[in-house]
Specification:
Blueprint lengths: L1 H9 L8 H15 L4 H13 L9 H4 L7 H8 L1 H9 L2
Helix pairs in contact: 2-3
């Protein structure tokens, strides 16, 4: 169910298409380079896929910004993983 949520978030616009899978793959590669075992790398992949699960609460304007974030935008985006954890926790 949670992975379906991640797919739904990604499908909301063309800009994010494939993003979660790319992040998951990069997380696995980083884990592999760090010498982590396969089980830990799989956990990293899942975390990479799920990292966007809270994007329904993040303003699209901030997510799609082309430049540096303002201090106010950075505060909003720093809440990103905390909100995602709250959504996935149950």
């Amino acid at each position: 169910m949670i992975f379906a949520l991640a797919n739904a978030v990604e499908a909301k616009d063309a800009y994010t298409e494939g993003h979660t899978e790319r992040v998951g793959a990069l997380a696995v590669e980083a884990g592999r380079l760090a010498g982590l075992d396969g089980e830990t790398c799989e956990a990293l992949r899942q975390g990479g896929v799920l990292h966007e699960s809270e994007d329904r609460e993040s303003p699209t304007r901030i997510i799609n910004t082309g430049g540096r974030l303002t201090d106010k935008e950075r505060i909003v985006m720093n809440k990103h993983p905390i909100i995602g954890e709250r959504i996935c926790e149950p």
